[in-house]
Amino acid sequence: MKRVLLVSPDNGKGLSQDVRIIRTVLEALGHRVAVAVAVVSGKDPSGRAVYSAELQEPPPYEFDLGIWLEVFCHVVARVAVRAFVPNPEWFRPEQCESLRSEFNVILTKLPLATEVFRIVHANVVQVGFTSVPLPHSPTRHAGLFCMAGASPLKNASQIVEIWVEHPEWPRLEVVGNVRIASSQSRPNIRLHRPSYLGGTRSIRQLAAGFDYHLCLSKTEGWGHNTFEALGAGKILLYGDWDPYRTELIHCGGIAVGGKPDSRWGMVNGYRVDRRSLSSAVDLVMSIDGSDLETRSQQAILRFSQITQQFQWNMEAFLNSL
Hints:
By secondary structure, the chain is α/β, with parallel strands linked by helices. Helix content is 33%, strand content 30%. Strand 12, helix 6 and strand 13 form a beta-alpha-beta unit.
């Protein structure tokens, strides 16, 4: 049994989910886990946030492994092995030297991050990751679902712009901070502000009612919305670019092409190719019930493989310490 410390901000979103998932997996493997919540304690000379953290349990503060998620943060504790889990789209190149000097190992979720950080650090271990599948829904909604949230990475505005040009397409349901002019309003586009839906549980229940999910982010460090849908057997329209080009192969989904248009942290961001999206929507409209069920089972199987591999990889990593 190892004593493990998790250090991360509690942002109520992806990082908070990451902590819960890692804790659950490690405890299921028989390890003891403590959490230190990182909070902003000031700013550095460049104006960027500086974090500090305090443990939420009594001493002794001695750990075999510490896992820091996304932010560098000082913790008053003795940690034998210091690991960092970066999301490459939010990692700044000027942080590379600190990464090398402060951490013994980098743990990555996807092959793209592994490739990027092997240039930066001598010890990189790809452990993978997982998410909590969407709940079962007795309601089936026609159309396609897009969870945009507040992220600038989801390509949601561009997707809506393309949809406006196609009133013949199925309904598009978007949850996020996306706006269109009243002159562009279409019967087949419904936009929801997340705050109007009553919280995460209501949003997940809405998402669970759609068979088709648009997962076309410019880039992702993981993408809980994507894997939550995959685990529930949803058919993904996903970006045929890194990081999902290889991870979502054989998932029963539909790959949509894109073109690089920006730089986010350590990786490229992509725009959706209009013709490729049009072809994907045409395919969606041709899928019958039997094909839908086959694709759904492929999605569940792929999610199961990803989750199992994550559990195996974490166990192997802990055993190697």
